[in-house]
Design brief:
74% of the residues lie in helices and 0% in strands. By secondary structure, it is mostly helical. Helix 1 runs antiparallel to helix 2 (38-63). The radius of gyration is 17 Å and the shape is elongated. The chain crosses the membrane at residues 7-32, 44-64.
């Protein structure tokens, strides 16, 4: 599989993932509104979504030209 196709797949996965997390966060927020656990659960969901976003972004960065795989660190 060529690099451009891999990038398209990862970008598509990131978009689907972002939409999934958005639906989960909004759904949980709606269900927990007015309860004592709203803020705690909301913070956990935000941390999970942010972590997932960073992981997928790092995968995309490795596949882009000039990424980590193209320029390995040089040992002095």
């Amino acid at each position: 599989m060529d690099r451009k196709k891999k990038i398209r797949i990862l970008v598509g996965a990131q978009i689907v993932s972002a939409l999934t997390w958005a639906v989960v966060i909004v759904g949980c927020s709606h269900q927990l509104e007015g309860t004592g656990g709203y803020e705690q659960i909301f913070n956990i969901l935000i941390v999970g979504a942010s972590t997932h976003f960073l992981l997928i972004s790092s995968l995309i960065a490795e596949l882009l030209p000039g990424g980590k795989k193209d320029n390995p660190p040089k040992v002095v």
